[in-house]
Amino acid sequence: MTDRKTSLDAIAVASLVLCCVLWGLNQVAAKVALVEIPPLLQAGARSLGGAALVFLWAASRRLPLRDAPGAPPTARAGWLAGALFAAEFACIFVGLQFTTAGRMAVFLYLSPFVVALGMPFIARAERLSALQLGGLVAAFAGVAFAFADGFGAKAVSDRQWIGDGLGVLAALFWGATTLVIRGSALTSALPEKTLLYQLAVSGLLLTAGGVAVGESWPAQTSALAWALLAFQTVVVTFASYLLWFWLIRHYPATLIASFVLLTPVFGLLAGALLLGEPVTVRLVVALVAVSAGIAVVSRPARPRAAA
Length: 307
Description:
globular; 12 helices; single chain; mainly alpha
């Protein structure tokens, strides 16, 4: 039986903060590695390596990865979720060539709003309240305000708007992936099985896409590039995701969800401190708007009083 807890203890808080720090650092690691490893091949290698580790983990724990007899099939939804996952990371890795890691982290976390807008089509009970819609509008307004940086003198390049746009598109794909999982048989499947679908399918598609557009693995790759790829694969894609699933199994999901707010904060700080990326007023406003919006949208709806 699963040992469920009703509140967050010190282990949970430390684990959640660690996950958010790692996810914030992930954009920085990918951007630095792009100097040597092209985007689609890097994303593909990350996913394939993570898939191999998840498969070995499931095999060592004898977790059933095949559909149980009589259970709804998961293959079609798994392939669709994997394809959307591939599109998301293609946008992220290609977009990081044009925009900063900090900006990518902020724009990427529009994903919860995509889920919030789409969930009523899957479960009508999850319609947004007026307050939640207000948080949604505020977040999008903040992002639009920050997006204008890409067309001004403070842009890091004359094509920053392309990277910012790909970050927003990645958030749409991420949200769509979540909706596919929530609206299919994958919602009741083992987390390891769902993650394996996403990583294996995206790894194959991203690698094939990289080869199709003429990307090639560098003849010589520095130790730093290998270390950053290993960090993305082992620490972020494998270990942090499994830790996150463990937390969801043992602690209240509503309390855990609020910690997601820390990820774009850590991403912005990591880009500024490690890469010297500029932090504009517009971007800070967007960060506050997105964080406040997630907090409002993630609030559980109050039960209606009986008539």
